[in-house]
Write a structure and sequence with these properties.
- Six copies of one chain form a homohexamer.
- The first copy, chain A, is of the alpha/beta class.
- Chain A folds into two domains: 104 residues, Rossmann fold (3-Layer(aba) Sandwich); 106 residues, Rossmann fold (3-Layer(aba) Sandwich), CATH 3.40.50.
- Helices cover 44% and strands 16% of the residues of chain A.
- The first copy, chain A, has eight helices and eight strands.
- In chain A, strand 1, helix 1 and strand 2 form a beta-alpha-beta unit.
- In chain A, 68% of the residues are buried.
Amino acid sequence: MKILVVNPNSTAAMTDKAVAAAQAVVHSDTVIVGATGTGPASIEGHYDEAMSLPGLLAEVAKAEAAGIDGIVVACFDDPGIGACRELASGPVIGLCEAAVKAASMLSTSFSVVTTLPRSIPVIEHLIHGYGLSHQCRRVRSAAIPVLALEEEGSGAREKVRDEILRAIEEDHCEAVVLGCAGMADLTEWLSAETGIPVIDGVTVAAKMIEALVGAGLKTSKISGYSTPNKK
Amino acid sequence: MKILVVNPNSTAAMTDKAVAAAQAVVHSDTVIVGATGTGPASIEGHYDEAMSLPGLLAEVAKAEAAGIDGIVVACFDDPGIGACRELASGPVIGLCEAAVKAASMLSTSFSVVTTLPRSIPVIEHLIHGYGLSHQCRRVRSAAIPVLALEEEGSGAREKVRDEILRAIEEDHCEAVVLGCAGMADLTEWLSAETGIPVIDGVTVAAKMIEALVGAGLKTSKISGYSTPNKK
Amino acid sequence: MKILVVNPNSTAAMTDKAVAAAQAVVHSDTVIVGATGTGPASIEGHYDEAMSLPGLLAEVAKAEAAGIDGIVVACFDDPGIGACRELASGPVIGLCEAAVKAASMLSTSFSVVTTLPRSIPVIEHLIHGYGLSHQCRRVRSAAIPVLALEEEGSGAREKVRDEILRAIEEDHCEAVVLGCAGMADLTEWLSAETGIPVIDGVTVAAKMIEALVGAGLKTSKISGYSTPNKK
Amino acid sequence: MKILVVNPNSTAAMTDKAVAAAQAVVHSDTVIVGATGTGPASIEGHYDEAMSLPGLLAEVAKAEAAGIDGIVVACFDDPGIGACRELASGPVIGLCEAAVKAASMLSTSFSVVTTLPRSIPVIEHLIHGYGLSHQCRRVRSAAIPVLALEEEGSGAREKVRDEILRAIEEDHCEAVVLGCAGMADLTEWLSAETGIPVIDGVTVAAKMIEALVGAGLKTSKISGYSTPNKK
Amino acid sequence: MKILVVNPNSTAAMTDKAVAAAQAVVHSDTVIVGATGTGPASIEGHYDEAMSLPGLLAEVAKAEAAGIDGIVVACFDDPGIGACRELASGPVIGLCEAAVKAASMLSTSFSVVTTLPRSIPVIEHLIHGYGLSHQCRRVRSAAIPVLALEEEGSGAREKVRDEILRAIEEDHCEAVVLGCAGMADLTEWLSAETGIPVIDGVTVAAKMIEALVGAGLKTSKISGYSTPNKK
Amino acid sequence: MKILVVNPNSTAAMTDKAVAAAQAVVHSDTVIVGATGTGPASIEGHYDEAMSLPGLLAEVAKAEAAGIDGIVVACFDDPGIGACRELASGPVIGLCEAAVKAASMLSTSFSVVTTLPRSIPVIEHLIHGYGLSHQCRRVRSAAIPVLALEEEGSGAREKVRDEILRAIEEDHCEAVVLGCAGMADLTEWLSAETGIPVIDGVTVAAKMIEALVGAGLKTSKISGYSTPNKK
């Protein structure tokens, strides 16, 4: 099985981290194919998200032509998921959808910890669309730029941990979802530090796509996700 | 006051029709500035929508730099509204949001009539996000491609009228929203033929933007729609 | 175009303030017609609201007979809107509906600041009905009686400002809606003091009615808002 | 225990019918006190409802002064319930709230059969406010004026029965709520004819008020339903 | 009329308290029949709830065979209500459904105070299912084990009172629902100490069942609650 | 990895079918351990579900003691999931939750086809709890008893196919979820006959548990699903 992990921003280091996180959890016979977008260096808000789409969709189309089995869009804002599903025959998932649906199976309620405050309403809107607002206690921000997660000594990981501890104390949540692809390598440490399930979108999205493909399931092609019309 | 009416698809004839529809209803001292995207010739589904965004956002940025007061995104799928709001200082609205919110003020329930079946779930998702599912009886399709609305003798207008009549009969709706920018010139005829308020997004969006600008209101810049971060 | 701004309470000073606020924002060729109810001196809760209705509806019927084009009910509790819509041929809107729908177009989330705590559940119920609970962070009260807004030296305006500042700090809202018609003259000052969009219902309702009338739209007459049955 | 059954319309025959229906089900030591409004002869829509309120509230105030224990507002549109609760110390309920909450305890889903189509959106809005839309299959109308229920030979009762049979067939509902106070005397016959629980608001409202009073419960007076402010 | 009050846990003292609370409020001609389950000594979470069901259902079946008129399941987690309704011909209710629906008639918003934190999500899930999340400010725990309510000198009643006072202060709720059958004997004292309606599920459930039976209503038998299929 | 597939009813043939369906899709190094309950022969409604729980939980406890990694409860009514999660350290899922969450990732809307009409409200209630009502077009029944699926020549599989075809035609759904564990062996044939994704709960639940375990995730133990309290 071949799964595309496509990072819609243009920071190759984040792609590498996501590919590594995915490869670490899939079965030995599953190949993770990485791809990097041509848009902004990080996705912080609606504009960045929009500008990432053509590069993202080009990678999806290329992978589809090469016979990919399933696709992970490695960004927590779930950019262009509907468009990717129109291009793909196999299943497609973004990090937010994968992570919050997993969280909803492992706890009665969860909070999300993301990077910047401006991403909070984006994520709240996604969760409302996924129907899980009643299980989401709160979407929080650790007030760090996305790229600080890539810098040694930025103190970013400690800020994420402290925000998780506040979430447990104030929100009475039972699990925490990490609201940024760039946090994938912190999951184990954060879970150990905080004592609750900490859910990283990259890991869980890769496993869910592997599961859907393994169950023989494909994206429906009869209406909302049918192949784009020829013009 | 200057209002941008930007058609995110690349069919200039649709831009002209939208500009004309907007100009016909705004005050004599309001200038409608038209702009056309560089994406697909029509927006039929998620992929087309995604591919229209860079062209749309370029027009918005250009207009913003030139001092526009408010912006109508002239497509019923409300593409890139969040991203446009990040770029704009004034108010921004898409056709679906404008039209369904207007419909919710004029009737206790409404139905939407769009072009192709594949647009139905896109519109349902938008209406769910706008919180108006409980007032929307049904989203229907007249089963016509968007561009048929531009062709003489395609029978498209009669199909739209017949679908509205079915909506009245079957959905017991009190108003109908036209679910495509390309139907703007049919509004008056459709209302006369069917006897209920028929709401065209272009017209109502232009008037709502004129109203918000006239009330001195601007897009909030403190979180979700703050200016895109420099990278 | 002639728009009725009808204040359902019997305090003429509040009518004057509302008429002035509306006249200040509409086009020069739009005439604002003021009218004052015969009910309680202020509307603070369900009982006051109910007792204001016959006077309100009499004014609406009179204006309708005289050929009014659209109607603003100048109270934030949106009293009798459905009944007014049955009497009116043109569009009718209350302050809460106009303001929260405007807020939903200018921000991803907003809070409301009203006068007395007893109005909080009334407004929450309205917002639930309008489908915007998911965008409303919180309905707050500045703990001032409605008529204190009319008194020099009551400290009311400072209390409203301080409550808005608390809303920004605690609710992380991006805009604030003023939850009382009597706050209309404070809007500009409050926005300057707090740095976020502050939305006054009177202003925005007048502009929205002007927009709907200008778009050629009328209240649907085929079911929920049909003309009252003769007995 | 004394319970007020107040009919907000001015048709004394409907009051008599409601009082009789209530008296037939309460305990022998519960006194039903009837009262009739001064508004329209029947309540068919928002305007009639609004015009019924002053008369209704006058009766409630009078009964409260005389020491009533609980109050049934005998109309299915639940007019002025919030206002009545502000005046009352004991519990207050309208027919719709009582009947749909009872239906939600006796079945997994129900439909409502009312008189005129114009009442459908009024009732749908109430049920949305009560949070029971997910258990309400459909609100239907038998297309009869309210007062036809009072006329011999109008065929009204057969029309109601036929609509209930259609509700069972088409909606797969498990119970039916009668959406008009004037249907109270048909309940037993309709249940026998259709084989499912048919729930009349008058009966169930009287019993629920008797239950709440008997449990020692009163209307909360600390915020939303606090006594009207003196002006 | 005979009403079964069945305590699904195996602590007979709690049954006695519930029977006494019910008997104290029903009419003199209503007989309360008590029954005790065979499951865990208290119901604290999903597992305890599940393990209580066979014993609970055996008591219900026995009572049904003996001709019971209605049934109260005397536990706030509403265990096995659907199953009991399949067995019963008369109405069946659990404490949570009865109490929150009563609270929704007496106040615009309420909070719940239960025993242990682990019961909070169970109750939140129930309230979501009953459609009353929008009226429930918060579900709180007094952090006491269920059986502490049965022990002299445990300080449990003071903890419950203090939590109610915090709910009034922090949640701005207008009424409080007691989230455990074992609190039934504290209601009067708590209401006196806190000044707001304090609603005990046992009392209100017994009265509601008495009301539904008295109104001639029975559980619908045509689909969701039809008699269990013979195997 | 070892996954328990526990059939809560007592029909061993259904366990065998579920184990086979699960084993067919998991990786070669994943061991499926089957277990059969001691309750009713099939689960048709709330009573059967309740009576299946002690046997189900005994199997879960046994497997947990023996070191199981994850658990599938192989019934579409998702019986006792919360209780199982309290007993388990690893992830636990029921068929309905797994299948509808998968369907929500593969289509914009889906319908469910179950066996008997009495199961429809059970499933609707589950889907409401999972927050996916807005993506579920309709829950339908093929009007066949569960055990007919085990009988040669019962015509059951054709009835299921015909109901799926009606769902496509009438509901405009894009995928169908099979609402009974006993349909697991029909999936491939039904998908071929109908041309849309047909989603079987057993298969997808086994793959999702394999995915969650593979991602290193466990059930949260800090509140709602904490280990049952010792009594």
